[in-house]
């Protein structure tokens, strides 16, 4: 069970995911860069119909190809990128969102695009 200091106060019940790469800690709830990198990134590909049916329609693109974005930012992301963010559908998020891990190549690419530290 996470300690109170590890809790995501913006989205109660979610633990903060922190990964260290070299001397830099990647805290997803203080980043959000991967969720605001590209309107092409949050595309549905490996989800089955049951998974997709659980995602609220207000977050799904009109052509049903992926998550609805406002510019390059996923509509399910709340907060300010690089400061404090949360996913409004964390437990229901699509596979593409689950695949991006703190400190991996996609994470670093998104962080770099937002001017956030990568090393």
Report on the structure:
The chain is of the alpha+beta class. The chain has a domain at 39-114. Helices cover 17% and strands 17% of the residues. The chain is built from three helices and six strands, in the order ββαββββαα. The protein has helices at residues 49-54, 95-99, 105-113, and strands at 18-21, 24-27, 69-70, 73-74, 77-80, 84-87. Mean pLDDT is 84; it is low at 1-16.
Write the layout of secondary structure elements.
Elements lengths: L17 E4 L2 E4 L21 H6 L14 E2 L2 E2 L2 E4 L3 E4 L7 H5 L5 H9 L6
Antiparallel strand pairs: 1-2, 3-4, 5-6
The number of E-state strands comes to 6
Helix content: 10-25%
Largest sheet: 2 strands, antiparallel
Spatial ordering of strands, largest sheet: 1-2
Give the radius of gyration: 14 Å
**Helix-strand sequence:** EEHEEEEHH
State the shape: globular
Tell me the span between the first and last alpha carbons: 29 Å
- How much is the average pLDDT? 84
Total number of helical segments?
3
Give the structural class.
alpha+beta
